[in-house]
Amino acid sequence: MSWCGNTPTPDVEDSAVDELTLPERLNVTTAYVDANIAAGHGGKTAFFYGDQQITYQEVLEQVNRTGNALRALGLDLEQRVALLLLDCPEFVYSFFGAIKIGAGPCGPGAADRGHT
Fold first, then answer.
1. 13: which of 26, 64, 88, 103 is 20 to 30 A away, CA to CA?
2. Which CATH architecture has domain 30-111?
């Protein structure tokens, strides 16, 4: 058993996972946003912000709008985009919008480090 902060984490040999199969290509926006629409959850609440209930359909629309705006600004595949936002819906839209177009959202300190 190893420790991360105050939480014990199992060592690999302690894990019950026999084999991990990942798809050749994975976009987490597809898994977290698009899949909920495909499952018919568009009208269901994705998250709460203050007194707002934001649906999966609203998230999808804003994620797509943000991704398209980032592309229009010239952001390309695998480029980093610095996000400096409060915990608000716009952070969610920006984060997933960047990922959806293949960019890498990061904090401002990581954006100027160049490619690693």
1. 26
2. 3-Layer(aba) Sandwich (3.40)
Chain segment 29-74, per-residue pLDDT in tens: 998 999 999 999 999 999 999 999 999 999 999 999 999 999 999 9
> For residue 28, with 0-12 CB atoms within 10 Å meaning exposed, 13-18 middle and 19 or more buried, which class applies?
exposed
Spell out the residues 6+ positions from residue 22 whose beta carbon is closer than 8 angstroms to its own: none
* Domains in the chain: boundaries: 30-111
Q: List, as one string, the DSSP characters of 9-66.
A: E--GGG---------SS--HHIIIIIHHHHTT-TTSEEEEETTEEEEHHHHHHHHHHH
DSSP bridge pairs for 54: 47
The predicted pLDDT at position 3 comes to 41
